[in-house]
Amino acid sequence: MPAPTSLTASALHAGYPGEEVLRGIDLELRGGEPPLGLLGASGAGKTTLLATLSGEHRPTHGRVTWDGREVAKLRGKERRRFRAAVRFVSQYAMTIADPRETVRSRLELAAKEARKGGRTHAVSPAEMLAAVGLPEHLLARTMRTLSGGETQRVALATALATRPEILVLDEPLTAVDPTTRTQVAATLAATIERLGIGTLIASHDVDLLRRLCPRIAFLGDGRLLADGTLDEVLARTEHAPIRDLAEANPVAVQRFR
Ligand SMILES: Nc1ncnc2c1ncn2[C@@H]1O[C@H](COP(=O)(O)OP(=O)(O)OP(=O)(O)O)[C@@H](O)[C@H]1O
C-alpha cells in the first residue's frame, strides 16, 4: 500500500496587501491520522490558513507541499489531481451552488470531477448523505429548497463524495442546531476514520472540536501557539489569546475538565 498522503506547511507566511496574517506556521496533515482541530479567535487567520493549505491563497513566504511537491507550482493535470485530493469546504461553500440543481446532480458532478482528477473510488451519493445525517430522499430536492443546516451538510457530503485524501473544513456545522450537530459530528467522525481522510477542522465551537479532534492546534498572533489535547491547549494560559478563549467559554471548558 502507498504511504498516506501528506499536506505540509513549512514556515508559512500569508496575508493580504498591508496585512501579514500568518507569520510562520508549521503544520502537517496526513491521511489515516485522526482529525486535527484548529482553534483561534475571530480574525486570527484560521480561514486564511485553510485557504492557503488548500492552494486557494498564495503564501508570501514559506510553502505548502503535497507529498513533497510545492502546491503553488502545480500546473495542469497535477493541479487537477491536487484539487480532487485536497478538498476545502469553506463557510460559504454552497452560496455558489446553482439553486435549481438537485442534491443528486450536485453530488454526482463532484464525483465526476474527482474521477477526472484521478480519484477512482468516489462514494455513492446516498452513502455520503447518510454520513452527514441526511435522508436519502433529499437527493431529489433542489438546492434552493434546503434549510441552512441541510445546505451546509450537502456541502460536506459533496466533499466526501470525491473521497479526498485530505479534507479542510471551515466552521462545517455552524448552521446546524446543537443536538443535530452532535449526531452529525459522530457520523462524520466515523466516516472520516473509515475512509482514512486526513482532516483539519477550524471552528469556534469548542464542544464540536472536542468531539471530533483528539488533537487541537491554537492559532494566535499569526502562529500556532499550542498543540495537544483540548485540555493541554487550554492550560497554556501564558498566551493571552488562549487565556481569552478559556475565559470566554467557561462552561464549555469546564465541562471537559
Ligand atoms: N480578502 C481579504 N482582504 C483583506 N483582508 C482580509 C481578507 N480576508 C481576510 N482578511 C483579514 O485577515 C484577517 C484574518 O481573517 P480570517 O478570515 O483568516 O480569520 P478567521 O480566524 O478565519 O476569522 P473568523 O473566525 O472570524 O472567521 C482578518 O483581520 C481579516 O479581516
UniProtKB/TrEMBL annotation:
PANTHER family reported in the protein's UniProt record: IMPORT ATP-BINDING PROTEIN
Keyword Nucleus in record: no
Top-level taxonomic group: Bacteria
GO MF annotations in UniProt: ATP binding; ATP hydrolysis activity; transmembrane transporter activity
UniProt name for this protein: ATP-binding cassette domain-containing protein
Segment forming the signal sequence: none
UniProt keyword list: ATP-binding, Nucleotide-binding
GO cellular component, one term: plasma membrane
A Pfam family: ABC_tran
Domain (ABC transporter): residue spans on this chain: 7-246
